[in-house]
Amino acid sequence: MAIQSQTVTKSAQMNVRMERALLEAGNAALAEMGITPSQAVRALWEKLAKRGKDREAVQTVLFTPEVSAEKQREDALDLVKKGHQIVDDFYRSMGIDPSTLPVEDFPSYEEIREEALFERMKERGIWLE
Q1: By residue range, what is the domain housing residue 99?
Q2: Is residue 115 part of a domain?
Q3: Inside any domain, residue 104
Q4: Is 62 within 8 Å of 56 (Cβ atoms)?
Q5: Which terminus in the chain has less CB density within 10 A, N or C?
């Protein structure tokens, strides 16, 4: 009587159907980054395993339409302008003329812009803490 040894592997294979053009474009983009399709899928599954209970964040990352860099820049600048206006309005409501305040007490444009962009990425679920 022959005993057959069964080995159980820890890995599994996944097959996905998609349009060939999408597959080729995705593979080319990954290749430019030095990432294999398997590495990309594995990384996505690892994120899902960690964040899967946060359904809204996962859906935001996966299904939010892409926004052009120019639109993101415009949105960030709008937030900066609104922030400045809120601060100016507050000072005026307190009887303080904002133009008399020392400029060095305010964050730089770069700091405000960076903060606005991080907040935007957090809202979209792109920046995970």
Answers
A1: 67-129
A2: yes
A3: yes
A4: no
A5: N
- pLDDT tens for 13-69 read 889 899 999 999 999 999 999 999 999 999 888 888 887 788 887 787 777 777 777
Q: Which of 129, 106, 107, 127 is nearest to 118 (CA)?
A: 127
The Cα–Cα gap between 26 and 112 comes to 34
Amino acid at 125: G
Q: What tokens were used for 84?
A: 């400045």
pLDDT in tens, 71-120: 888 888 888 888 888 888 998 999 998 888 776 666 778 888 888 888 88
Instruction: Name 77's Cβ contacts closer than 8 Å, sequence gap at least 6.
Output: 113
Measured CA to CA, the distance from residue 128 to residue 56 in angstroms comes to 13
